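Q: Hi! First time doing this. I have a protein sequence and I read that you can turn it into a structure. Is that right? Here it is:
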Amino acid sequence: MSITSATGELDAWRALPAAQQPEWDDPEEVRAVTAELAQAPPLVFAGECDQLKDRLADVVRGEAFVLQGGDCAETFTGSTADAVRNKLKTLLQMAVVLTYAGSVPVVKIGRMAGQFAKPRSKPVEVRGGVTLPAYRGDAVNGFDFTPESRRNDPRRLLQAYHCSAVTLNLCRAFTKGGYADLRQAHAWNQDFVASSPAGRRYEQLAWEIDRALAFMKACGADPEEFHGVEFYSSHEALLLEYERALTRIDSRSGLPYDVSAHMVWIGERTRALDGAHVEFASRIRNPIGVKLGPTVSADEALALIDRLNPDGEPGRLTFITRMGAGRIRDALPSLIEKVSQNAAPVAWICDPMHGNTFEAPSGHKTRRFDDVVDEVAGFFEVHRALGTHPGGIHIEFTGDDVTECVGGGHEIVEDDLHQRYETACDPRLNRGQSLDLAFMVAEMYRKAR
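A: Yes, that's right. Below is the predicted 3D structure, encoded as structure tokens:
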């Protein structure tokens, strides 16, 4: 395929309906911004995307488990060393729990370095009789409820790129520069062990790991894998002008890759088969995820497979189910059965967050930790009954001690929500709740094997 023809196919989405796109004031400003992005260095490389695809192929074969998580919506002010380290530290702790207690290799994918845009149920927000555009994430507009802040500003796409670059550089430094060494397992927990039941439980596991490492070292074994981790970035490919501007033709293969992240996914609101997002994703060679809610039909799932992975490449396509705790046991089985009957190589991941959101009497949007756990349990139960592989979890969490989701081992009640409700969009698990969940998922995984 020539570069010219590949470029033409990459723009085919422009002729199709594109849901959840902001209304920009000035098309010329958008063109200037995307032209600048098109000349910017890649955030990730095609070879790294292919490596993640190989890891996800292990998941398809039942040989690995995905831990995908991070912020609901990243903010520009959150692209600091402390904030990035805290999220990464939580992800590493969860991965250690899953790897050691679940006895399974874990593919670590962050909802980081690009999750700056969010779909919204309504295009506008009304407060006190004033109507302004809805907050669509820092890549589009600001959180403050003022006309200046809520203007859809295409220059923010450039800031999203630069903040993504900063975050990725920090993640690479932390994961390759010694911070992710397994011998640091205690250090990740120093600020947490005394104040949290989850931290104390993790510390016991860290001591077990210490003994195992000492035994292996005494035997002359010190694998390189103990001293760093593979970490991959992902986000929802929502803003198509941004994703298209960051798509490059790989010099090795002549194939197009979206170099904004290793993996991108299509949301529940944008997965229309005749829509622009599916068309765009079908043209790039990154690993692709698709969110599937409780109303999706098995035929729709099969049609998505035909569009996004017609060659049946393992690791290319991941279905991320977001059914809700009360519906997953009824909605998921027929979906998995029909996909399995067609021998489609799909990785199945559970997003137990988005189907379990409700509004507390205080007006805070929240989630019950017990509902999150119950949806994951239903996900495992369905896979165990069908003899298929529960491939991973996809969660929204933060490394901070927020009060956004109720429940957990160090219980948060609805009256606590106001204390540290800091999310820019949806409620996230805090660090203790995330570790609690990791221990529970590890146990579920061991029972499912």
